[in-house]
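Researcher: Here's a chain I'd like modeled. Treat it as a single chain, no partners, no ligands.
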Amino acid sequence: MTFRATPPDQHDPSADTGQTRQPMTRREAREMARAEAERAARLTEPQAKAPEPADEPAEPAPERAAGPAAPAPEQEAPAEASVAPEAEHASEHADFAWLHAGLHHDDGAPPRPPRRRGGGRRALTWVISVVVILALVGGGALYAWHTFQPQVQAVLAHFHSEPTDYTGDGTGTVEVTIKQGDTGETISKTLAQAGVTRTPEAFYRLLLSTKPDPVFQPGVYRLRKRMSAQSALTLLQDPKSRLDRTLLVREGDTEAAVLQNAATATGIPLAQLQAAAKQPATFGLPSQAKTLEGFLFPATYTFDPGVDATTVLKTLVDRSKQAFQDDGVPTDPNQLWRTIVLASMVQREAGPNEADLPKIAGVFTNRLARNMPLQSDATVAYGTGHYTTVFTTDAERADASNPYNTYVHTGLPPGPIGNPGDAALRAALHPEGDYLYFTTVNLKTGETAFANTQAEQDANVAKLHAWCQQPDNKSYCQ
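Model: Modeled as a single isolated chain. Structure tokens:
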């Protein structure tokens, strides 16, 4: 019978051996040639033996019929028993032809299945592709997402049907706080959480595309809800949108005036501010301080909505402490107290010319050194509750019950009579001149005259009264 390892259309009818053969690869051809040579050598040996049954194919080999000595009949039985009709096992031979061909290889190589026409290779390629894709998805997904998240989100947002931004200028009102150090990302989230913008991304993308980069001032802003990102940015850049709780403390303002202005600026009830001010020890002031007078530093302050009374006053007191340090005020409680009291007197008596402040401080210092009464109308007026004028009457100057009456009582008054600024503090620390008197001769310009004798002082006071008699100046002298 014929051993079929390949389909019938691959037979070679021109073979001179009388059997059909499978087309072979180069390696198979070399192996076949070597096998033929070995078999030819064995045929030339005397008493050649028949091949081992394990090396025989399942069908009679051609060289058996042509051999010089036929095997014994009992040796042929196993071979004949292993042969089956061709019609019954043709498909089996075809499926396992690779195994039968491998039995003739004597190089020790394992048997190989027959190559199929590209199907196995295509299947392997597909499997490898799937494995690579899964590896990429599993191992690189996290890295890819972190690296390309903004671009991916931008693309998704472009194709997403739901809008990310409102349109128009919005409706209603809402207050939004921007804190010191807030970044563009933080502000974007704040706006979205307050309902101003639809999403944080809408405002953040606008910031990235706006040149030059927008600058935001800390504070509270009045915006509207459901605004477009562009409308929100426009309002945030408009100073009018910022809700300023601004308090201006002027040089020489008294505590009473500061508390009233603070109530107006912040909306805090005046009673709450007055109650907080009655506890000066809670603000770390010297034991001599019974009020906050002298420790509410003149400056401009801005407070956020919702601030409480204690926070407002503490802000002003802390600013005073910073000024004391900057101006070199002694830290010794007694020296600190004396400097602030003297500076408050200088501030209240001085006009707008800062060059006069050291001279006024010099007059008070010289009189103190001679144990002379300071004779300050500003202290007398403070003691009577008339905080807005420095003019006093004869009766007020003679009232000994007023502890701030420096016409009657020698030495410094019992406490500050206002809140001094930096110039007055430095003047109290560095007084100038040997004058013993001073008086303002022009209340409109603040011109001040200094004198060493009582006669010179009387002449200067007469100038002041003459100035006040002029019709255009009477309003200044009331």
